[in-house]
Amino acid sequence: MADNKNNNELKSISEEYKYGFKTEEKYKFKSDKGLTEEIVRAISEFKKEPEWMLEFRLKAYRAFKKMPMPWWGNTELLATVDFDNIHYYIKPEKDHEKSWDDVPEEIKETFDKLGIPEVERKFLAGVTAQYESEVVYHSIKKEFEKLGIVFLDMDSAVKEYPELVKKYFGTVIPIHDNKFAALNSAVWSGGSFIYVPKGVKVETPLQAYFRINAQNMGQFERTLIIADEGSDVHYIEGCSAPVYSSDSLHAAVVEVIALKGARIRYSTIQNWSNNVYNLVTKRAVAYENATVEWVDGNIGAKFTMKYPAIFLKGEGAHAEVLSVALAGEGQHQDSGAKAFHLAPNTTSRIVSKSISKGTGRASYRGWIKVNKGMKNCKSDVKCDALIFGDKARSDTYPRMEVYEPTTKLTHEATVSKIQEDQLFYLMSRGLSEDEASTMIINGFFEPFTKELPMEYAVEFNRLVSLEMEGSIG
Amino acid sequence: MKKFFEIKELNVSIADKKVISGLNLSLDKGTVSTIMGKNGIGKSTLAYAIMGHPQYEVSGEVFLDGVEILSLPVHKRAQQGIFLGFQHPIEVPGVTVVKFLQQAYKALKGSIDYTEFQKSLTNWMDFLGIDKSFLYRYLNEGFSGGEKKKLETLQLLLFNPKLAILDEPDSGLDVDALKIVGEGIKKAKENGTTVLLITHYQKLLNFLEVDNVFVLNEGKIALEGDISLAEEIEKNGYDSVLSNA
Question: Who among B53, B89, B94 is closest to A447 (CB)?
């Protein structure tokens, strides 16, 4: 019943993604393909890093070489990653190598449909690394400095705040955590560093947008957030518009530390182009009475592996994970959450929602662990999956290790197709089939979107409607 | 002369079972009519088939205000001015009532003037005694029977359709809620909506001053009359009335 025109249009956009941009680029520094100790040393030298960071990188490099591929996720896809065919560090000579004319028409149309402002479009299409809100950022930066907040790109933080970085860097996600964390530790570049001093409550969310020029969306970005005692901060990264990358492997590491009584919310919307393997390690430590909330939305990428984790290390700590994924044609979203209850009276709540359509596949992979003697812990897990078409797939892989009998644990999982009666009800009120489906889907994602600032929520909903056009019926 | 609403030789089957067979019925503009009949005889089927539920196999013709509607998809029928009041309104999680009403209003009217919409919405909510907080709840999710029926009635008034087919708007209501829903339907009639009512209760029929009574049996309209026919059924039962016909 639905027309297939839009569907084909979208399909052709994703075809385009596969090839990225063909542009002539000049580089200030470009490593050879493949990873060697020399390259790791060169990266560190190029960045003029202190000795300890070089040591860290080299140790990580050696670990990476020895470690096996993860056995979880999608081993078939992982087996296709060719580590010898990747440039691990590229520094363009100029920021404006690509031109707007090189951007495929279909992609420009998508920006149009999403109503993305001109300046952002250029950044998202990789045409420019500058973002005009730099002025805004500078005035905000002054405010931050007064409060003692540090908000920098990771590279600068290593130089400007060496003690602080050294104290926490790599403590939440050790080098040996998994092969991709080791890789990131060896070759990381870009990402954010945030420190919020004791008792400081940051009212407006810190947005990666403001400092996009600091290579925020790198291939191996590295983010570290420390919220000191009693502080409160919300960090937002990404945006729902498609982000183009000709680099097929993205392995980010995000470390979050909430000290006693602090609260950190970390929101992400990611929509990488469909050639990207997005393999992210995100982990937080929550100390006494601290709260960490991961709000995580994944739309793009060919393959995503991402399981935001929280180590509840102090009594009364609380973890929240709200994760949504949309797996379209040819995509596999393997996402989920982990909560380790390592102190008594700790609580966790995980909500995961996924949609798979076409040949898309969405998997939930979760891990709840409660150690012996950690009395009165509570964990609630809820997974809802919505499936369109006969080829789409949804799986859940929950893992629960509970060694403490006083634990209260719930796990709920539902898998459903869109209900004919819901469509009929909405259509009987004048909505077309596509409009009705979109309304049902936006409703399905509502627990996620209502947690986002309005402009992000609107954009996310619009993108989901675009993705779903013509895929029902 | 063409009737305002006319069903001609309508056949409806579900899973190869014929429920409606060669049914004819017509309504004048601005009237209130009721379809009565035994349980399971096909009253709701008729209502759903007119609206276009995909599970039914339908043939025949149905005209609203000169437009044949059976060839139209569900939402176009709604846009032509047909409203179906559900006996069991459907829950749509995550969609707020206000968002739903806004989008439906826009779809049905072709455009939306937000000031006008707001005014009209507030007006009808006050009329039905519905609290503002209602607007921010998710559509029919966790609503009591009475709340669901009130929301259907609110839509009836807000959308102001040409024809409203109301499937047991009075089922499961307490006396107070019944009065509110009754007042709502009466108001819709005053605003020009033609009403076709499916109900088992005399009470609502008397309150609404029903013009025509149709009795559905064996897939057709078996009897047609005024309110006295409904009274006779109430007194003697369907079997007796149908066999004496």
Answer: B94
